[in-house]
Amino acid sequence: MKIAVDIMGGDHAPEELIKGAVAAAEHNPSLELILVGSEEVFQKFLPVLPPRIERLYSHSVMAMDEPVDHLRKKKDSSIYLATSLVREGKADAIVSAGSTGAQMAAAVLLIGRIKGVRRPAIVIPYPTLEGDKVMLDGGANPDATVENLVDFAILGNAYAKHLLKIENPSVKLLSNGTESHKGTAVIVEAHQRLAATKCLSFDGNIEGRDMMKGGYDVVVCDGFSGNVALKLTEGVASALFKLVKDEITATLPRKIGAALIKPGLMNLRKRLDYSNQGGAPLLGVNGISIICHGSSKAIAIEHAIVTAANCVERDFIHHLADAVSAYTAEQSKEVVK
Amino acid sequence: MKIAVDIMGGDHAPEELIKGAVAAAEHNPSLELILVGSEEVFQKFLPVLPPRIERLYSHSVMAMDEPVDHLRKKKDSSIYLATSLVREGKADAIVSAGSTGAQMAAAVLLIGRIKGVRRPAIVIPYPTLEGDKVMLDGGANPDATVENLVDFAILGNAYAKHLLKIENPSVKLLSNGTESHKGTAVIVEAHQRLAATKCLSFDGNIEGRDMMKGGYDVVVCDGFSGNVALKLTEGVASALFKLVKDEITATLPRKIGAALIKPGLMNLRKRLDYSNQGGAPLLGVNGISIICHGSSKAIAIEHAIVTAANCVERDFIHHLADAVSAYTAEQSKEVVK
User: Fold this and answer.
1) Four-CA torsion B295, B28, B84, B8, nearest 10 degrees
2) HSE-up of residue A27 (Cα within 13 Å, Cβ side)
């Protein structure tokens, strides 16, 4: 199996990307990798290629905040070239920690969408007291329609089932109240549609205050609220760590106390650290494109490459396509009735 | 000055509402209060009225999750009767911790809107590392239009200026990125309008991750995202307290450490405790209606009554009306050009 890795994108590119890829190849003898990056980067950081690692030179990078439409002009960019490898059948999957918008655009342009999916979505691992849950869309579709939200639910459900191996995932809809009439007009209608389908187990609305408690597997939301919710969670956690630190070191007894509990706090910090997370596939495109958090370190990149391999092995794209067509079939029956 | 208090609404009604009102009257000799509640409640909890406290009997309550349109049939409910006192000039302001939807509906129905305001908004005190900031809308308008968002900005700015006495408030717009092109179509257009007006200091978009850091005075958002953001902040904070507690008591040295830092953690918890906060006025209605958090205890109710008195003393409604008409005037000049 061959996996393409864009080593030019992300806050810690290229070193951490290269380290992660080299470790993944070393630890997984069945993997072959194609690293995509500039000649200078290879000369400086990886002059000699380790076993089962190839390279492909790129000549530009899609910057983190660069308008996505530049992609069409940057056909020599690392993300364009890496995604092209999947299109051409030279790689089975692609992994990147660069601009999410550019990765999404490259995937839609070069690999295309799964039949029946109007807009692909970004899956976000959302940290809860019970461990990570699935949240989507994480930011690709700020203006999601009712149909988009239903698609996200179908895709997220299939992701939880076939990749996370959860038998009957509990799917929730993010809203400003648990009652079915709460939310924007779009949310209220999406709630009705999700309650009506037999293609997944819809467990109603979830409020912001219950997100971190767990008790669900998948949360569906538009890309705007999803992105606000995710970044808010990161921000609140980091502000609270600062507050806790300030409060517990304000007096001498507390300083001693703080020293004693430091290992516990470090554990906690690690549990919430996005830089260790392993990425998630773009859901709805017709191939495997794994999105990593921009702040990913080597260990996260290694995990993401393993996730990519799992997706390929488990024939994940076929499962997704089956789930979408099952829903489409259910809908056309409804219309016939 | 007379202030009406609905003692029937809120998680801790009626006891904490009554305690808070009695304390407010005791501590503020210039205040007169009219408590609105059922005869049974007065008989049980306040058989003898303290000085400067009157009572008005109500015969029903708008429940927390009751559809707002029931209000028209419940003209004997505590929130309807308390708001009517303001309409009839028998009270200068009304304070409630009951159903926010019902309080908003009663205010719009009985007191009306400020001229030029299409939809009133709920102000939420948002906790940051620098202290509380102003967030609106907190949930009254899930489907906010561009015009609604601009109104919220004008109202929030006037609130920060005239009630919180901040000279030149920094106003931000909640979005999924700091760049002006990020957000839903509505957010992107609202950004352009806010950047164009001279009626306030617009400081661009703010992301979820920066909300708790501070560095602003007012955050404008639609009621859906605002409500999700607020409840998420509460939920993340309470989940993290649980995590911190679990981590720091996992081993004996940590248990000792935990005992030493307990006062610090209690301080911290208090800083983030909504049940101590003092409520905020509904912005955009043509009279003072103070909304308290449903979990308000006596101290919060006392603070809310003082806030109501401040609003009346500072002629807050006139300041709001002036701000709205200044913006309307600026807009009609734009059209003439």
Assistant:
1) 30
2) 13
Contacts of A100 (CB under 8 A, 6+ apart): A122, A139, A140, A291, A294
Interface probe for A, chosen from B176, B216, B270 (most Cβ of A below 10 Å), is B176
Inter-chain touch B228–A208, beta carbons under 8 Å: yes
- Report the distance separating Cα A322 and Cα B255, nearest Å: 52
| Residues near B324 by beta carbon (within 8 Å), at least 6 away in sequence | B114, B115, B116, B117, B151, B154, B155, B158
Q: Provide the pLDDT for residue B186.
A: 97
Residue A194: count of CB within 10 angstroms of its CB: 25
Overall average pLDDT of the A154-169 stretch: 95
Residue type present at position A267: N
The 8-class DSSP code of residue A77 comes to B
Q: Are B139 and B183 in contact (CB under 8 A)?
A: no
Residues of A in Cβ contact (< 8 Å) with B259 = 257
Ordered DSSP codes for A135-188: EE-SSS-SS--HHHHHHHHHHHHHHHHHTS--SS-EEEEE-SSSSTT-S-HHHH
Alpha helices (H) in chain A, listed in sequence order: 15-27, 39-45, 78-87, 100-110, 146-162, 185-196, 223-248, 252-271, 298-313, 316-336
Q: Please calculate the CA angle B45-B49-B51 and round it to the nearest 5 degrees.
A: 140
The complex's ipTM works out to: 0.86
| CB atoms A228 and B227 under 8 Å | no
Compare CB distances from B256 to A185, A251, A260 and report the shortest one's residue.
A260
* Residue (of A38, A96, A98, A109) closest to A69 by Cα position: A109
Handedness of CA A77, A82, A83, A89 (dihedral sign): positive
- Give CA–CA dist B193/B190, Å, rounded: 5
Q: Confidence band (pLDDT; 50, 70, 90) for B276? A: low
Say which DSSP state B60 is in: B
| Residue A271, min C-alpha distance to chain B (Å) | 10
- Residue of B133, B260, B269 to mutate, testing the A interface (most A Cβ within 10 Å of its Cβ): B260
Q: Which two tokens stand for residue A143?
A: 């203006």
Chains A–B, number of C-beta pairs less than 8 Å apart: 196
Contacts of B233 in chain A (CB under 8 A): 208, 232, 236
Nearest CA in chain B to A206: B228
Min CA distance, B187 vs chain A (Å)? 10
> What residue of A is the nearest CA neighbor of B256?
A257
> Which residues in chain A touch residue B240, judged by CB atoms under 8 angstroms apart?
236-237, 240
Q: Are A185 and A171 in contact (CB under 8 A)?
A: no
Which among B183, B239, B261 has the least Cβ separation from residue A142?
B183
pLDDT for A61-84, tens place per residue?
A: 999 878 889 999 999 999 999 999
Task: In whole angstroms, give the CA distance from residue A64 to residue B290.
Answer: 44
Q: Would you call the peptide bond into A50 cis, given omega within 30 degrees of 0 as the criterion?
A: no
Q: CB neighbours of B43 closer than 8 A, spacing ≥ 6?
A: none
Q: Which residues are bridge partners to A171 per DSSP?
A: A202, A218
- The SS3 of residue B253 is helix
Taking the whole predicted model, whether its pTM rises above 0.95 is answered as no
